[in-house]
């Protein structure tokens, strides 16, 4: 009579087992995604830090200012140390990373040693400069190999998770995955660093100070939502929902997701500052099948967009394009002076010309009316202070930010050294070399480092 009880109990047990198994599967997938993100972050930070090290060493070849040497050496030491830490976090056998790790460690220590020497009032001698040139050559080779690895992984759509699943059991055993193969190739490039004598450990990075606060009254969540809708365009929006708010350093924001008519499957994220009610970020995505607009047309459309939104006097500086989306940097210009602290980034799709990204944080924290005093030096006097190795192509006046979040009035000189392009900033009042930027031309546009 109760013959159905046992099958029912078994069926219930089977259901619970299936639910439990599915939950475990979900947890495992979540863990794999989490680790994939960590490894991707470490790898791309490694690529970025090695690129910055190479650029910093190149700038040392151009700089003729001892104070600038100290700044560059400090940055090189910090970035080389950070690159070594990134390298150590990758799930690749240490046997194929040994030589690369040793190179980064030695470079970090040597840069620190020279920084201490320069800070003590001494100069970099010819032998030490020769050592730095050798280290730069090795950094160039390492950067080239990492760039190749980046391109290959994107081409083959290979993730670090796949490497984890197929990893060798032995910690020192070399796998045959794309990552290990490329790092083996890096070992074979012959990183031959000079014999260096140095002392002291890695120095701590400078603390960053905060900039000025937004002005204006505090806005409510409803007011912020209205601001977001108005910014996107009420005729475009079909739905808006509150997202998690965030603290962007000194900028607390309300966050919203907005669905638009033309692409309801790709909502935009928009953040509005609680202080002053200003749009801080717009983040969207779009798959561009075919590029229609030229870069010049995209920059013109992006400039018109900023003008429509109340950002007057913005001048396009640099741009990069990835997958049909162009990211364009704009800085505020007034009376033939460009103000780099007042920076806005705009992302625009090259097929339909619509805006899919905005980053206005720097502009909001920096922009104000400024009274520029007559500088102590003329353009001609400042030009004489530029290293004669640099062939100057253009010049103008600019205001640049400093590490202490202050501003510095400078003369901006763009020029070349061999095939490399640089921008040198000479303080318009003291004549000091305030900064050096290297312009990197990529297949996707130009950027400065």
Give the topology, please.
Elements lengths: L4 H58 L3 H23 L9 H22 L6 H31 L3 H6 L12 H11 L32 H12 L4 E12 L2 E10 L7 E6 L5 E5 L11 H14 L5 E9 L2 E10 L2 E13 L5 E5 L1 H6 L12 H5 L7 E11 L5 E11 L2 E8 L5 E10 L2 E4 L1
Parallel strand pairs: 7-9
Antiparallel strand pairs: 1-2, 2-3, 3-4, 4-8, 5-6, 6-7, 7-8, 9-10, 10-11, 11-12, 12-13
The number of distinct structural domains comes to 3
For the largest beta-sheet, the strand count, sense and barrel status come to: 13 strands, mixed
Radius of gyration: 26 Å
Question: How many β strands by DSSP?
Answer: 13
**Which oligomeric form is depicted?**
single chain
Strand content: 25-35%
The end-to-end distance, rounded to whole angstroms, is 82 Å
User: Which geometry do the CA atoms define?
Assistant: globular
The string of secondary-structure elements, in order, is HHHHHHHEEEEHEEEEHHEEEEE
| Count of helical stretches | 10
- Please identify the structural class as seen in this structure: alpha+beta
List the uncertain runs.
163-179, 188-213
- Mean pLDDT comes to 75
Q: What fraction, in percent, of the residue positions are helical?
A: 40-55%
How would you concisely characterize the structure shown here?
The chain contains ten helices and 13 strands.
Note the main attributes of this structure.
449 residues; alpha+beta; 13 strands; 3 domains; 13-stranded mixed sheet; Nuclear Transport Factor 2, Chain: A
């Amino acid at each position: 009579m109760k013959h159905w009880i046992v099958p029912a109990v078994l069926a219930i047990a089977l259901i619970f087992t299936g639910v439990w198994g599915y939950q475990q599967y979900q947890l495992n997938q979540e863990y794999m995604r989490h680790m994939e993100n960590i490894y991707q972050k470490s790898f791309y930070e490694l690529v970025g830090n090695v690129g910055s090290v190479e650029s910093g060493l190149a700038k040392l070849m151009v700089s003729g200012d001892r104070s600038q040497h100290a700044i560059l050496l400090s940055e090189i030491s910090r970035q080389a140390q950070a690159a070594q830490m990134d390298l150590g976090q990758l799930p690749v056998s240490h046997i194929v990373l040994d030589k690369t790790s040793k190179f980064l460690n030695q470079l970090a220590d040597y840069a620190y040693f020279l920084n201490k020497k320069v800070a003590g009032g001494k100069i970099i001698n010819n032998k030490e400069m020769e050592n730095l040139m050798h280290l730069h050559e090795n950094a160039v080779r390492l950067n080239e190999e990492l760039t190749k690895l980046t391109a290959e992984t994107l081409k083959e759509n290979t993730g670090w998770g796949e490497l984890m699943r197929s990893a060798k059991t032995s910690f020192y055993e070399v796998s045959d995955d794309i990552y290990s193969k490329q790092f083996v190739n890096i070992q074979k490039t012959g990183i031959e660093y000079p014999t260096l004598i140095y002392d002291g450990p890695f120095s701590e990075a400078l603390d960053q100070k905060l900039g000025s606060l937004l002005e204006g009254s505090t806005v409510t969540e409803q007011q912020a939502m209205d601001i977001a809708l108005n910014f996107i365009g009420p005729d475009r929006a079909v739905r808006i929902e509150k997202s998690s708010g965030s603290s962007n350093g000194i900028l607390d924001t309300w966050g919203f997701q907005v669905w638009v008519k033309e692409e309801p499957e790709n909502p935009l994220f928009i953040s509005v500052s609680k202080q002053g009610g200003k749009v801080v970020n717009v983040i969207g995505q779009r798959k561009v099948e075919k590029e229609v607009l030229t870069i010049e047309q995209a920059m013109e459309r992006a400039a018109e967009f900023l003008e429509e939104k109340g950002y007057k006097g913005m001048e396009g500086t640099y741009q990069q394009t990835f997958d049909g989306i162009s990211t364009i940097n704009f800085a505020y210009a007034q009376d033939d002076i460009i103000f780099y602290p007042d920076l806005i980034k705009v992302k625009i799709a090259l097929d339909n010309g619509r805006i899919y990204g905005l980053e206005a944080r720097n502009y909001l924290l920096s922009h104000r009316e400024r009274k520029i005093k007559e500088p102590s030096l003329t353009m001609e006097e400042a030009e004489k202070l530029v290293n004669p190795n640099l062939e100057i192509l253009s010049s103008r006046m600019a205001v640049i930010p400093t590490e202490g979040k202050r501003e510095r009035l400078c003369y901006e000189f763009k020029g070349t050294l061999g095939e490399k392009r640089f921008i040198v900033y000479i303080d318009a009042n003291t004549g000091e070399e305030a900064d050096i930027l290297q312009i990197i031309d990529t297949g996707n546009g130009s950027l400065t480092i």
